Amino acid sequence: MGAGHAHPLHLDRDSRVHRLAPEVKIVATLLFTIVVVVTPREEFAAFAGYAVLIALVALLARVPAGWLLKRSTIELPFVLLAVVLPVLGHGERVDWLGMSLSVDGLHGAWNIFAKGTLGVLASLLLAATTTMRDLILGLDRLRCPTVITQIMTFMLRYVDVLIDDARRMRIARLSRGYDPRFLWQVKAFAVGVGALFLRSYERGERVYLAMLSRGYAGRMPSPVEATAPAREWALSSALPVAAAGIAVAAAVLA
Amino acid sequence: MDDVRAMHIANGIINGPVSAIFIVVAVAGLAVCVRRARVDLDDRLAPMAGLVAAFIFAVQMLNFQVLPGVSGHLLGGTLAVILVGPWVGALCVATVLLVQALVFADGGLTAIGLNITNMALIGTAAAYLLVALLLRVLPRTIASLGATALIASVIGVVVASLGFVAEYALGGTTQLSLGGIAATMAGVHTLIGVGEGLIAATTVVTVAKVRPDLVYALRAFRKQPIGAQA
């Protein structure tokens, strides 16, 4: 079944970015996103600079642009929100193609679109270059409480089991000629969910007891105990440092 | 805001200072939960917590139609609270959100504080208080456990969505009218809450019938398991 080793957004390649320790990648992504979010929305040049940085990292990580773009459609709901803002917003208005658009709404739309897209792309790069196991290891090394990493480990162990079981049950239901998809048919869905839950719990309980009897004590054994060398921290800090440099340059030049 | 997947706030919807404040709020809240959860987390609860988190994670991927054009997914806070208790439950929801932000780019990394505050802290706290109240006053039957799950889900989801409205009032980056947002959010989330409530109720009732020992809320509020006399 291969549960818990990869996730749908992981891109199995070998690159300098893939080989970096997970904790340095998490920190770099987080810092980069913070720099992007605190940049004032009028600094258009700065956002272009961030996009270039993302493209460079993608190149270094050997993640194809098409792959990134296809998966960045997850933020589409927010893009829709961005589209309605200029029409619904208040304040000063401009005319464009016969439509009266709010200036504040246009800025707001740009703000959501630019920051949202850059954030999604940064997260996608992290996900593409890091397996789930490594992410948990990284969070553990960043002193994330073991209760949380423990819940996360089990969650990832079970999520594939659940999805597979749900698929089997759905196929069984479909093959009996029933396909509930509307609110008034929610009972069939809910009953299936209840049965799914119990089936999975009893499987999970057995797995957990088996783990306990093999010496599990709240933390998965790690093959490499070493933490990230300073060189990796330095390499990955290039991304947030460059982003901060762009932000400062844009603020000074403006 | 018709698409309910917008439940996970992305980067840049709420301004930087407010996002930062709520990261502090979320970290403080989760720190309390972590401390209290250590007491709760025994051999029975550990796999249950993982399963509840996995379950919320999986069920959030299954979108169901609420109205034409509006699809929703579960938040799962009430389910978590009833099955694993408030502290571990909040951590389960927070873990799901963290993984979604890190791995699935769903919900911005800088908005994680907002999302955790709304869904893992405010939503589950409201649900837990209701569960605690209702299980004490309602008759000790399976049906009233289901009713509790339903009511707590609706209120929990709506309260979580109003958390977003409050954050938007504090630091929204655009000037949409606040009343309009509040009405839209509350309206859409009442519908979601009903769907969520029905599913949470059925799941909890199924578990309570077969394995009443697994339901945290029953252990906490009803010393004698309701399955015992059946």
TrEMBL record, chain A:
GO terms for biological process: cobalt ion transport. The chain crosses the membrane at residues 20-38, 44-61, 73-89, 109-128. GO terms for cellular component: ATP-binding cassette (ABC) transporter complex. It is a multi-pass membrane protein. It is found in: Cell membrane. The keyword Nucleotidyltransferase does not apply. It comes from the Bacteria. Keywords: Cell membrane, Membrane, Transmembrane, Transmembrane helix. This is Cobalt/nickel transport system permease protein. The lineage of its organism: Bacteria, Bacillati, Actinomycetota, Actinomycetes, Micromonosporales.
Automatic annotation (TrEMBL), chain B:
InterPro entries: CbiM/NikMN (IPR002751). GO terms for biological process: transition metal ion transport. Coiled coil: none annotated. Its main location: membrane. It is a multi-pass membrane protein. It is found in: Cell membrane. Keywords: Cell membrane, Membrane, Transmembrane, Transmembrane helix, Transport. The chain crosses the membrane at residues 12-33, 45-67, 79-104, 116-135, 141-166. GO terms for cellular component: plasma membrane. It comes from the Bacteria. This is Cobalt/nickel transport system permease protein.
